[in-house]
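Exercise 3.2. Students should predict the tertiary structure of the chain below and write it as structure tokens, then compare their answer with the key that follows.

Predict this chain's 3D structure.
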Amino acid sequence: MNIPQDPVMLLSYVNTQLRDNYSSLDELCASLSVDRESLTEKLKSIDYEYDAEKNAFL
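Answer key:
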């Protein structure tokens, strides 16, 4: 699956998917065949980090 490459669009997409369809970042990455480290680094570049308790990038 192609996910947005722009970090801001990616943030919106990932948080929506986490809220609506996945109970964890690991589940999302496995389902979409996305490398977790690459995803988190891209979002870290715009100062967002994954909060497992809230299941969202904040």
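Discussion points: The chain has a mean pLDDT of 97. Strands lie at 50-51, 56-57.
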